[in-house]
Design a protein that fits this description.
The chain is an all-alpha fold and 388 residues long. It has two domains: 236 residues, MetI-like fold, CATH 1.10.3720; 71 residues, no CATH class. Helix content is 63%, strand content 2%. It contains 16 helices and two strands. A two-stranded antiparallel ribbon has the order 1-2. The mean pLDDT is 84.
Length: 388
């Protein structure tokens, strides 16, 4: 596009070399100062926060290790060895031979039918799905029977604590993610509708939230978990292919949406009178389209920050319930369940420190990382800090 003769960047005299050089220099400077997207600007500010970036790297590595736990050279998380009960951490040798991993076929053993889990896998790793079975088979092909030694010691039944911590990370992290996503879906939908509609509908919906705030949810969760343990209900869940622990995740998430709803409502109240909302309303967009297509995306920065702070709360609540024996049940394992085991063996005579130090360290480091990342995202997504 040709500049206007009155444009301040247009050279006054095209035959003047000084003016032409000034014009070229200004154009080059404008090209260097090209604008960036809000997401790229937020990532640039997040990278400057070393603690938040280190937390992001730690959480990423933890998530990858938890996802690929069956592929790692770990011992069985459920195989007992009573002759090695309360064995302290052993750093040498680093690798040992574990006969329970891929044992040699005994004479007369029938071959495992295609698509079924071998019996040794069920005894060694418990009930596993097809993906975990494939990962374990890949691990056996790559490393054979070699497994890491008891670097974190063993528990009262002689089970390897490092393997139980890593397998427990899958359930603890999944509880945090699924619970936070459930609270996100319920809270964002509820708060956005309440804030946009306004009037008596907003007042009624917020009074419902106030009433729910006064309910002791821990007793509700305990009651639901106790009910799910009933024999008839357990048979009904098994018949419909619903895992009890999946219901546990959803129940935890369903009690943490109240604050999310209030946060989203406040953002919607500040955005619903903006010009882009009036423009969408002018062209005939419906209420739901305006809420979820135009308003909610503009409030995502606050939602993402609060989501990173909700995940540790959900994980801590799951650990608390498992610590009380009301959450994850054996043979499944979580960090809260491991902390409960460590707490039970604390005696005045002897303290088996590794049984509570390593599970507690896993919980603490993950919660710290999530909170540091949440603080970093809050600063990075704040438009008032754009040039800082």
């Amino acid at each position: 596009m040709t500049e206007s003769p009155n444009h301040p960047l247009t050279p006054r005299r095209l035959d003047d070399p000084v003016e032409v050089e000034r014009y070229a220099r200004l154009l080059a400077e404008a090209a260097r100062n090209r604008g960036v997207s809000p997401a790229r600007e937020a990532w640039r500010r997040l990278r400057r926060n070393r603690i938040a970036l280190a937390s992001l790297v730690f959480l990423g590595l933890l998530a990858v290790c938890a996802l690929l736990t069956p592929l790692l050279t770990l011992q069985s998380p459920i195989q007992t060895a009573t002759d090695r009960s309360f064995e302290p951490p052993r750093m040498w040798p680093v690798f040992i031979d574990t006969p329970e991993i891929a044992p040699d076929a005994q004479p007369g053993d029938a071959a495992t039918p295609a698509g079924e889990t071998p019996q040794w896998m069920t005894k060694t790793f418990g009930e596993i799905g097809p993906v975990n079975r494939w990962l374990i088979e890949t691990r056996v092909r790559l490393f054979g029977r070699r497994s890491l030694n008891s670097l974190c010691g063993r528990d009262e039944l002689g089970r390897d604590l490092l393997a139980r911590v890593m397998w427990g990370a899958r359930i603890s992290l999944m509880a945090g993610l699924v619970g936070a996503m459930v609270s996100l879906i319920i809270g964002v939908s509820y708060g956005a509708i309440s804030g946009y509609v306004g009037g008596w509908v907003d007042n009624l919906m917020m009074r419902i939230v106030d009433v729910l705030y006064s309910v002791p949810f821990i007793f509700i969760v305990i009651y639901i978990n106790t009910t799910l343990g009933a024999h008839q209900i357990q048979l009904w869940l098994d018949k419909h292919g619903i895992n009890r622990i999946t219901v546990f995740y959803v129940v935890i998430g369903a009690v943490y949406w109240l604050t999310m709803a209030r946060v989203v409502r406040g953002q919607v109240l500040s955005l619903k009178n903006e010009q882009f909302v009036d423009a969408a309303r002018t062209i005939g967009a419906g209420r739901l389209r305006i809420i979820f297509r135009h308003i909610v995306p503009n409030a995502l920065s606050v939602v993402i920050v609060y989501l990173t702070l909700t995940i540790p709360r959900v994980m801590l609540f799951e650990a608390f319930l498992s610590f009380l024996g009301l959450g994850v049940q054996a043979p499944d394992v979580s960090w809260g369940l491991l902390a409960n085991v460590g707490f039970k063996v604390i005696t005045p005579i002897k303290i088996f420190w590794w049984l509570f130090v390593f599970p507690a360290a896993a919980i603490g480091m993950t919660l710290f990382a999530l909170n540091f990342l949440g603080d970093g995202l809050r600063d990075a997504l704040d438009p008032r800090l754009k040039n800082k």
